[in-house]
Amino acid sequence: MDFKPERELESGQNAETQPAETQHRRDMVRKLGRFAAYAAPFTVLALNSKAGTSSGPGPHVPRP
Amino acid sequence: MRSVPERQLVLLACLLVAPTLGISNPVTGIQVSGSVPTTCGFGNCTGTALSAGALTLGTSTTGSYNFNETATDGDIYKVSGTFNNTFLSGTFLGFFPTVALVSTTAAAADTITLDMLQDFSFGTDTTSWAGIYNEKLPFVLSGAGTAGGQVLYSTDLDTTPQSVGLLGPVSGPGAFDLVDSATLNPLTGKNLIGDFQFTFTFPEGAPGGSSISSPIPEPSPTILVALGLAGLLIFKFCRIPFKRNSRSNHQLQ
Question: Which of B19, B59, B182, B252 is 20 to 30 Å from B149 by CA-CA measure?
Fold first, then answer.
């Protein structure tokens, strides 16, 4: 009779599910990163909107 | 691949070489005056140092400060807060100080003036910094007293400071949000010199702990709602694949 110990079965299952989970985690990190990149400028703007701030146009060099 | 000591040596060399290449840390100064002796409470307030440490295009600087000042009448005030100055495409100054009375009671009325000094540098003397400048000055006063402020700009060539607008004084207690804008010109020169000025007054007999501040930025309700929605979306994205995994696990069993 072909009998496998319980531990071996569990490790076999993990081996099958691990790549999918790793891929899923990678996707999640990618999605979170993209979200953070989009959200960052708005967060900075919103945070600064209630505080003592001053903004200017920046430099411009006149045409010769 | 370099070993750890080699990498540390390279880093040290870079740090030593950086100043000679003109790569230096930005310099910001916070000057205190009024009823207290005029002092530089934070950073460096000399024109030479500020000019040498001016923000260049694409750079920014942030910092925090916490120091005590003693008025001529003996009253002690604590000045604390943060600043956030950037030079990405336009110029940006963020100044968030709080002045609090440390003494038990104010022996006499006191005026505390804070000037955050920050230079910006770009191009040559022909550079123009003219245009529309904005200022937002929110104040929170815990008790009686007044608060006002303005932001002044000048350049190394156009040396007379021009105000975006003198706002206030407003009287406490209460919270106020003052806004102004102005077109400043000619502002020609290599360096733009920014001076973010607040003037706070504390009346005689003000109780210890009285404070006047330009609030530190806090997440607004809009941000909290946005974060909540984002959290829900992430939760939704997370759940679906895990469900699939749990199903497949059940099938395996």
Answer: B59
